[in-house]
Please model this.
Amino acid sequence: QVQLQESGGGSVQAGGSLRLSCAASVYTNRIYSMIWIHQAPGKEREAVAVLTNDGGTRYAASVNGRFTISQDSAKNTLYLQMNSLKPEDSGMYYCAARRGWSSSLTPNLYNFSGQGTQVTVSS
Model:
């Protein structure tokens, strides 16, 4: 079972940047596909980026061109670089994992997830 721990959240002004990290308890490179999930207050969870187990990426339209998902396989750590942040990007961010290849942006298809990190973007 994969344990995930997110970090890197904080408060920034609109237009600013943050980098979120997700440390995994096991080696994930080429084994697990990983996603970042955003949950705004009172709204459904939305996956914003996926990294397939063979290195492919896919983004939700709302973040395409602003967010970048990547990983450092030596550190078993997934990242989400968030640039040009908007107030609507505020909320909790979770990382999640699914064994095998997946490019799905459906959060419920991923089996393991962390506790989340809070992002607040002020206008």
About this structure: The longest strand covers residues 91-99.
